[in-house]
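Example record

The entry below shows one chain as it appears in the dataset: sequence first, then structure tokens.
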Amino acid sequence: MLPSPLQSLGINRRSTSVISPLRRYVTTGNLAIVLFVILTVLSTIRGRETETTKAEVVIENFSFSPQTFTLPAGATVTWTNRDSMPHTVTSSDRRFPKSPVLKPGQSYSNNFAAAGTYSYFCSIHPRMTGKIIVK
């Protein structure tokens, strides 16, 4: 049997492997720990991105968009009229101040400090409704 090209050059096959030194350090347990830490960090970062203290509601095509959403207590919501008609933001149960008439391009903001469900509508076009859930 002829020697392999590596053996004829005097190179040991075991010493040429790049992976074999890593095998001493990388075990299934170590790999599981590293993956767990990475997933924990990523889920923490994602959680921070979704929790916001500011939100925008667009008034367009005779509707509020988004129509319903959830925010943490202390969040500020801004309604912006991008419709061609004037609109208002009116609390269904007077839990927050009514906006002035918003002409196209105008905005109105309100801070929601207390937890609860806040339903609202446009007093000019009452079929336009929305809801904010504050937790």
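Notes for this example: The longest strand covers residues 54-60. The helical segments are 5-8, 13-16, 19-23, 28-50.
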